[in-house]
């Protein structure tokens, strides 16, 4: 997968993608990252990328032309069609289903705004979708872009040591993940649930499912209400 980042600070996103699973995905050739700075496409001695908003008010707005030129340069760098995503607090909220969908694209172009955001006409002309990482306002889209890069990179085939681990993560089946334990068995903070030491895989799977169901019900009733529960799940809940 190829991801191009349009940003005044493209190195920031590249740096976030240099570690751990995402870094390894890059080393294994599963992900290639490319940064494009709109300032490199800006005119004049000052290479302006922003201007005051029409109608007055505080802050600055990112100019159409340097952004459009950067997006076009990114598109032209590879013949595969790219989906252009503008990271914006006004976009649809990012969730695991959307991450899975994005991870299936051969190319993404992530557009990061700054200041008050970008000229609306650029969004209408060049952007396929707007995505938000939550109901709060960041000072720039770079952290949001880094979130998208991380979430899609770990879903690339071969990125995780054990592909099963992504399937068992929270949200994949609509529920939260179960709790996890590791060595030592005895610790001053407590013991490990006996079932996990039993070696009985069917009982362990049942316990994990029960924990997932219980946690989701307690912590995320919104997810629980939407989850497709089986007869066996209902029995576990009643137990
Ligand atoms: N005036 C804009 C508004 O209220 O909708 C906020 C602009 S914000 C200060 C600057 C940039 O940060 C945005 O253009 C966007 O790229 C990014 N950003 C801020 N919050 C975000 C969020 N929750 N999700 C994704 N991107 C965000």
Automatic annotation (TrEMBL):
It is an enzyme of class 2 (transferase). HAMAP family: TrmD. Residues 1-225 form the tRNA methyltransferase TRMD/TRM10-type domain. It is found in: Cytoplasm. Homodimer. Keywords: Cytoplasm, Methyltransferase, S-adenosyl-L-methionine, Transferase, tRNA processing. This is tRNA (guanine-N(1)-)-methyltransferase. One of its GO terms (molecular function) is tRNA (guanine(37)-N1)-methyltransferase activity. Pfam families: tRNA_m1G_MT (PF01746). Belongs to the RNA methyltransferase TrmD family. It comes from Lysobacter yananisis. It catalyses: guanosine(37) in tRNA + S-adenosyl-L-methionine = N(1)-methylguanosine(37) in tRNA + S-adenosyl-L-homocysteine + H(+). Its main location: cytoplasm. Specifically methylates guanosine-37 in various tRNAs. S-adenosyl-L-methionine binds at residues 113, 133-138. InterPro entries: Alpha/beta_knot_MTases, tRNA_m1G_MeTrfase_C_sf, tRNA_m1G_MeTrfase_TrmD, tRNA_m1G_MTases_N, tRNA_MeTrfase_TRMD/TRM10. It comes from the Bacteria. Its EC number is 2.1.1.228. GO terms for biological process: methylation.
